[in-house]
Amino acid sequence: MAKFEGYKDIYVFVEQKNGNIANVGYELISEARKLVKQIPHMNFEVVGVLLGHHIASKANDVIAHGADKVIVVDHELLENYSTQFYTDALTQVINAFKPDSFLTGATVLGRDLAPRVAARLNAGLTADATKIEMDPEKEDEALLLVTRPTFGGNLFGTIICPDTRPQMATIRPNVFSMDPVDPAHEGEVIVFNPSFDDTEAKVVVKEIIEKVVEGIDITKSDILVGAGRGAEDCLDIVEAVAEELGGAMCASRAVVDDGFADKAIQVGQTGKTVRPSLYIACGISGACQHVAGMEKSDMIIAINRDPQAEIFNIANIGIIGDVKEILPLLKEEIKNVKA
Ligand code: FAD
Question: Which residues are FAD-binding (predicted)?
Fold first, then answer.
């Protein structure tokens, strides 16, 4: 008998708010597709789980993004996020369908929900992961190797959950790329009706006040010009280059800690994870905590006056020199090309 009889497939929690699906759900579906392809003998599928109210019409979007099945849990108690009702509903889904693994975005919601569900199921959970692989040495099970920063971000630890199912993990947004939408992709929609023993909310949401996001969301920008401590005294020109390219400025933690930039634009382990088409690192040393947040960028150009700077190890193009000299030249050149 197989070790985990009845447990099958990789499930992805598809987070939505007001019917808008967060990209991280699609990123995880794309990655889950790659994982199931590595174990064809197990015939695993990728299953999206969509919770909310009046959200059934979104199931086709989830299929177009690569899910083979979507479980739709539509209930008025799930209209807005509630730890209590989402935990109740999701636990029932997992008990009913027995996923082999269950992935959730490490968003504010995911970080609240996944541990609750894991505790209720007595399942193992790896939180805040940045990498997932399939253990190539296990032929008769789909054991996930889930990597996350540890010891204050100085080391990476790979965690396995060999004894329980589902193997649960929360994964940071923007870590995985999203496959292109395929409207021709076919899948099955399954409606699941949860039953709530206790329908009295323990926490009552009186009002929802949307956060006003000031400035640009760097995770959405396709071109980023990153300022490091070496560019602290020429941030105006870093910003001007970003603007000329139609992108945004971001910063290393050193610049944020020194008080020259807002935490909202910090890239890295304790900041945001970004994956733009172009990342220009200006006066950034390339510490692993910074690199963890931008190494998946399609093209990395690094400008640093130290030829030994770590950032050159991951850069596609390296320019050795003073940012104060190079950035004005770059800005003029971009202007000329655009003219
Ligand atoms: P520095 O390390 O001071 O490097 C400056 C670079 O600029 C040097 O390479 C220098 O050669 C170059 N330079 C100087 N002047 C010039 C010039 N005129 N022209 C060209 N080059 C020049 N860091 C992050 O960025 N993001 C994080 O999320 C993050 N999280 C962390 C979490 C933990 C738990 C810890 C311990 C650290 C974290 N850090 C993070 C900090 C990280 O370790 C580095 O200290 C930080 O990234 C360094 O920033 P920097 O490269 O801008 O500055």
Answer: 229, 252-253, 266-270, 283-290, 304
